Amino acid sequence: MATRAEKFAGLSVALITPFRDGQVDYQALRAQVEFQIQAGTRCLCPVGTTGESPTLTHEEHEQVIAEVVQMVAGRALVMPGTGSNSTHEALRLTRWAAKEKADAALVVGPYYNRPTQEGLYQHFKALAEAVDIPICIYNIPGRTGQNIAPETIIRLAELPNIAMVKEASGSLDQVSQITTATDLTVLSGDDSLTLPIMAVGGRGVISVVGNIVPQDMAAMIAAFDAGRISEALTWHKRLFALCREMLSLATNPIPIKAAMKMLGRDSGELRMPLVPLSADQEAKLRRILSAYGLPVSG
To answer: Looking at the predicted structure, is the pLDDT value of residue 1 above 70?
Structure first.
């Protein structure tokens, strides 16, 4: 049965935000956008965790949303991150995304202040009722300190504008509860769990490693959707080591930015308090990328 937001099924990529000399590098951002469009990526997701949204100013956050929508120009879907631990701020960002003609909004659960499940429900309800674009609930308790319980998501699914869930709880039981009880479009929030999540009803991924190997992630998803399970499993096994080994080196997006620098696609610059990989970690990352067959430079 088709899910609520099937047009977002497949590969979405959580874009990095490139920096140069402390400022957002919009020329490099355009290159990232064009790279993804040429790869056939279904949806681009700027200013999320991978896009270092915690250290962007409000003005930068809004400008990156506007710029990416304009750069994409209808050639792919755009689902920017608009979440906050303040409902007021999340409303402002989500309304901005809608005003700029984004196709959906990716809204992380409120972090640090750890609202109750009723508070989480009211937070997402307020956003869903304020805009016309679809809302994707982003559940990543390892970052936020609070799991959005499947019962809360099932309750939120009664609101028509709640269309998707990015699931990064690591629990296939939780994914199964959502896909069994609702028609929400569930997208993996963990690259290495994409195939298992699809096996229990998920419809794709919002990917970090898709920044460097979008065609491979898309090939795995397409194989599964076409019923070529053995081929999908082969892709999963090939991608698994890259996903797990690279992304376990340090907090995301430190490793992916380092990888993109090694591949000649980014400056690798981060904003404090994120800091670069150590020399030993860089050497390990270089080995990981080379083992995968990527053309590491330098």
So the answer is: no
